[in-house]
Amino acid sequence: MKVRSLLVLGAQYGDEGKGKIVDLLVERAQVGTVVRFNGGANAGHTIVLEDGRFALHQVPSGILHPQVLNLIGAGVALDPIRLVDEIGELRRRGVDCQNLRISDRAHLVMPWHRVLDGHLGARLGTTSRGIGPCYEDRAARVGLRVGDLVDSRGRVDLEHFAERVREVGAWKNRLLTRVHGLDPLDLDQIVSECTEAAGTFAGQVADLCGVLEERAASGHPVLYEGAQGALLDVDWGTYPYVTSSSCSLGGCAVGLGMDPAPDLRLGVVKAYSTRVGEGPFPGELGDGARVRQHGALPPGTPLPQPDPALRQAALAGDEEAMGRWLRLAGAEFGTTTGRPRRTGWLDLVALRHALRISGLNALAITKLDVLDGIPTLRIVVGYEIRGRQTTSMPSRVRDLAEARPLYEELPGWSCLGAATCFEELPSQAQAYVRRLAELSGVPVRVLSIGSRRSQSLFLPEQD
Ligand code: IMP
């Protein structure tokens, strides 16, 4: 794979399996640098190795490759406390994180952001990681940045940071107590917790503009790793049921401070759809409200497994059972929150929208194996909204909520098995993939047929 730079974006509602694809491409394209440019600890990028599973949140997905420099760009909403937890967990597992750098311009997720998100975010079903309130403060020009915590020589700047926390925190405490009736936060404790956390990564904070320029000139490709997905983009997603950052090509330029000019712009798409939290979801299988009421799985709980009775009900045409089947067979529980994900058929209207807003020129399809054993597969190819058919993504969320999906049906397959190339897949699976490429208008370059690195197929470049 010969590329100068690559962009990897979610082309649905997040959780497409971007972590695995980034990790694979790092090796395949001999990537020298991986950069995260948006989102923060709301993301959950999973990489499964032979000896275990890594769930990354703020740290870029190239971290397991010691020769790759991993950058957290200025567009990321960085939670210093959670970052230190994440680095600590990686170190415990033998990943030293010396190959990590953090932009001094990234905004800090502060405790008041998390409290406000927890208090107000339920309406949208947010992850409660403080992301929305942090980006709000960025736009309102009252945010604190990594450069307020760590000075330009890579040293924790207690005096400056304490001053900024007192200034902004006093006002935030008035907001918490007087407007929301919540308890005030202890600002001294915030200063001590954040400065202690910063001690772990201060030496890795830098102005990344220069670093990126050098890396881009180094001859090894740079990979830009998007978080969340196109349908959660603050401008182009299903607003207001979106996250607060740009999850598209535009967000990449803004979050880095350079022209990313990626020659490979890869959209990662699951072979079916999932969505977490509130918001319209054409093609959804079953009752989303019921799924949303289910609590999050406590950390460490074994994932529930599908049973034969559920399978039988799903195959007999019970849509809710099919939705549950996909959730259990696909282990569709949030990497970050443990929340059960809503499930549905693949939506080509939404996918084409995702491709258009970021000019994506290739696809990686993940979790194709989860569709094993379903005799008839459906793809959403259009919407009918109050009697009118359309293949465009409506801007009004109300229209989308009323959209009746128009389906195309394709025959399924019984089992993908251990295919080592595209041609070894069952003919129906090949036809499914070809049809997706045809309907979306871009070639499929990567197929993931299981969670491990080895369960991946690269398709030859097509003209
Ligand atoms: P926030 O990003 O925490 O503000 O949440 C806003 C919406 O985006 C909610 O519906 C979340 O469930 C969703 N969301 C945020 N990050 C992710 C992600 O990484 N994967 C899937 N959904 C996400």
Question: How would you explain this protein's 3D organization?
Answer:
The chain is an alpha/beta fold and 463 residues long. Among the domains are: 107-201, Adenylosuccinate Synthetase, subunit A, domain 2 (Orthogonal Bundle), CATH 1.10.300.10; 284-344, no CATH class. The chain is built from 15 helices and 20 strands. The chain has helices at 18-28, 80-92, 111-120, 131-140, 146-149, 158-179, 187-201, 208-217, 249-256, 288-293, 308-315, 319-329, 348-358, 397-402, 427-440, and strands at 5-10, 33-36, 45-49, 52-56, 69-72, 77-78, 100-103, 107-108, 205-206, 222-225, 264-270, 273-275, 342-344, 346-347, 362-366, 376-385, 388-390, 404-411, 444-448, 456-458. It has a ten-stranded mixed beta sheet with strand order 9-7-5-2-10-1-11-15-19-20, sandwiched between helices. Helix 2 (80-92) packs across helix 7, helix 3 packs across helix 4 (131-140) and helix 6 crosses helix 7. The longest helix is centred in the middle third of the chain and has 22 residues, at 158-179. It is globular and about 65 Å long. The mean pLDDT is 94. The structure holds inosinic acid. Residues 13-15, 42-44, 124-127, 129, 131-132, 227-228, 232, 243-244, 276-277 line the site of inosinic acid.
